Give the backbone structure.
Amino acid sequence: MIGRRVASIAEITKPGDYCGPIKGYNGDKEACYFLKPNARDADAPARARSIQHVLFPPHTYRECADGSLEIRQSIGDTAGQSTKSDGWHGFLDEGHVWRKV
């Protein structure tokens, strides 16, 4: 899926939308907020339908020449201590590309 980088959390409306890195919501850490590619799938679990985020660190990011972000460490499909999958695990690659693993 090709997503889009938006300017604010309020603009995250479609699967693949993301914004960041921004500070102010998670202490002194930067974060990227997003809707995963499966967020509006008919069979998506409830957690997949919500805006999620990754923190920097432990994740890392690279600002790409085309304005996209590349996020490393994979973006997991579980949160915290949960072992229940939200149905999507992968990477955000250069070019706004969401790549499932």
In short: The mean pLDDT is 95. Residues 4-100 form one domain.
